């Protein structure tokens, strides 16, 4: 266990914002754009009776898995926020107990 504990609340919030923003505004939208491009290709530029629908279905599943993985990044942000909140609450509670005694 670390001998010292230090939390930079502003940095925690900043990094959480970066993670959330990356998922919501970059990763997931780009994956969905790519999925639409693939669908367009398979419906107009690379059309094979049996293969194109199979490829499209596989790419749909692939995209769903990627999106789920990207969304899991937000869970890290949530964990960081929960740690920050727990430490804030603990610090406040300890100060109240010290001041009450």
Automatic annotation (TrEMBL):
One of its GO terms (biological process) is cell division. Keywords: Cell cycle, Cell division. This is Cell division-related protein. It comes from Streptomyces xiamenensis.
